[in-house]
## 1
Amino acid sequence: MEHSLRARVRAGDPDAFAELFDAHAPVLYRHAARMTGSPAEAEDVVSLTFLEAWRLRARVRPDGDSLQPWLFGIAVNVLRNTTRAARRHQNALVRLPPPDAVPDFADELVTRLADADRLRAARTALNHLRPAEREVVALCVWAGLSHAAAAEALGVKESTVRAHLSRARARLHRLTEKELQRRYAGGQVRVDRAPAVRSIQEQPR
Amino acid sequence: MNPPEHEELARLLPPPTITGLPGDRHRLLKDNLMTHLRETPARPSWRGPLLIGVAAPLTIVATVFALFRPPAEQPAAPMAAASRPATSPAHLATAEAKPKQLLKLTVHSAGKNKIDFDRLVKDLDAQNVNVTAHRKAPKCAVMMVVIVPKRKANGDFAVSIPLRDLKKHPVGVAFTFGAPKRNKDPEFDSVIFTYDSKIACPEK
């Protein structure tokens, strides 16, 4: 079925892109929201990713498994340079109305606010990593892509993905240890404590 | 990385739990995408070499004209600006505009000093450039007229203008290709771009 979908995507069948959108937009949105820390920016990234996918459809390989790594690869490039992608598709984007300023239900408002807090905390945590490490962690650990899929999305070797993950883990370990030392020395944490504090709380004691 | 190390990394940096794309926004984004896809039908991915040569400059034109569209003509309502001012791609594009940037435009020649207007219109349309091209020179005083006297080796016209100059003329810009000569038959051709068809300058 995926092979047929690939052929239809390559042929520029809009219905194939509608299927792609339904299947992959939610996971792309979550990835973009975690990377940007902003639901509104994440929506733009999703839109731009599919507009770019439409533009680049001829580059889809005729054979292969899921198209998800290909879409993630496009999303990674859009996230790296949202401005350039937005310029390219400006006409398509400006038609999009903004979200409602006031949600219909109070529960939804509370949920959105909680999401915003969590996304800000995640963004702060990610900022402790190098850009390449951020992308690999977000794809493999947060989005659940395999090393092979992440390597395809990023256009690198699997060994590179593994190396970035190892370095990210070591870096986060060092940060956590520093945080522990500060906490048990009686010092007060002033900035950027969300990732380390969370990690300490969730570790077995 | 083996699974235990992977799990450890997930503990060190747990993924933020978010609710995902709301159903109404999913439908809206999808509808917008599908509208765009159906408006831009599939074309062969291969294009002739000359068209490729023109595509990049015209993309820059699209950016420039979008940047300097009059604020009142922006589709984004005040409510939109209030709800997502810092994240809209349009906002980012505007923020990135630098005064030292240049507008680069290439227009095909149709022989002598004539431009290939039909082809230009098709190229603009193919590139989704949000401007209206006019055949005749305008009388509109607020427009900037750019004279492009020289041609490239292949006969096409090419011009570069600082964006800061365009910014002073929010209605549009006129390009005259070839050198107008006094007391002689005109040996030039013009094309006028206006940012919106509703505010087109009166034509001769």
Note: Confidence is low (pLDDT under 50) at residues 101-109, 186-205 of chain A.
## 2
Amino acid sequence: MTAALRAISAQRDVGLVADSLREITVAVHPAGARRAGEGAGVIWHPAGLLITNAHCVRHRRVAARTSDGRTFDAEVVAHEPRLDLALLVAPGLRGRAPELGDVEALRPGELLLALGHPLGVREALAMGVLYAVARDPRSGSARWICADVRLAPGNSGGPLADAAGRVVGINTMVAGGLGLAIPTPVVQRFVSRARPAQAA
Amino acid sequence: MSAPRTTDRAASTLVALSTELADAVERAGRSTVAIHARRRIPSSGVIWRPGVVVAASHTIRRDDDISLTLPGGETVEVTLAGRDPGTDLAVLRLPNGSPGAVAATLAPDDVLRVGSLVLAVGRPGDTVTASLGAISAVGGEWRTWQGGSVDRFVRLDLTIYDGFSGGPLVDAAGRVLGVNTSGLTRAAAITIPVSTVNRAADELLAKGHVRRGYAGVAVQPVEIPERLVRDHSLPAESALLVVAAEQGGPADRAGILIGDVLVALDGAPLREPMDLLAGLSGRAPVEVRLLRGGSPLSVSLTPGDRPSRGGRGR
């Protein structure tokens, strides 16, 4: 493939990843508020389960707006400030669950893409590379995905994905210029702990 | 539009590019070390040649008790061969038989092009880390505010994170294009190109320091009245006023006095202090044109060596 064709092809691939992330990303804001989302969220389960950061939801009842412009009422069913994760249920929302990437296979320098609403700009894409995966010194499990990706308030709760569009983390904060995302295995553990409570 | 299907993924150019970038980091990471020579987080260094590590001088805060963590995870004690604050480079010697120390693959300077996709690689701890960006400007030879001469001005549009100074700039093939530093410019990060690092490393390994011309004067730029420029057909409207002269220094021995206005050095105009430094790189006597009390005068000055300011290898 010539360099020009390769560039065009890479550009098309970025667009495809952005499209697939848009499908699973919502804007989260207090119920009744009409202004731009305070944070982002990820459709985690087709039956209307959403994941966002705990710091994005200050009330039990919030609204989630999908990329096609529909707004759904959502209820916070699990809220864990220590992990900075919250699980929401939006009864009317039907979506596609994200494909998850393998966090353990991530390598420094590989491309990462984030979708969110930085400073109120809806569904903005940011691209960069993996800086490092920060691990728990005792268990060795992934604690943070540190990304050389420019994030801003409004990216919180949104997806961080690999070059194939597979979600590897939930963008949560910026530290030392790096974007920090909660690895998806941490999210999965949180969801599996939270769901029995939701059923009860 | 639907998400890329699994079958699309194998053919995805973006995935291929991503793999290439991670491969480049992995390759360069085999030559990137962590240097423990300051209180804060470690800085980075590059195994430039077998047994030789290049780092950023400003991150090496002591001359002794320096250790580094090799890519394989072993920590070894190293010795400082010398440092050149002018180019912000320092050279460290690895002990013989350091395990897992692979010298970097260096790229020639002429591959430096504006727009090239590049990675900054660092090891500010145990693991290799990376940031992505582009070369935003490539210029000719320039002189740093510390007086060092750098073959090319290479400005980067990427983030040099804490601990990245001294680490390599890497192209998509994993070749090293230079050594990154945030210590020479205030705005964007820059890279010291391979040719300059080679030259500094040669000199530091041979002599422990990089020679910079020394006149033993402090100067400040001044404007010269138009009449004087015309009457004495001076090369420029500004020159250097001598505000201090070290006793027994090269300028003092040449008969230069406080208050003299230095106009030209071997015919080249002296507009700013850097011009003086640039003209003193040799050892042969140079002709200094000056104005003393408004009258032109010429003296012969033999450049000396900059005296060390305490400590060794500064």
Note: Chain B has six helices and 22 strands.
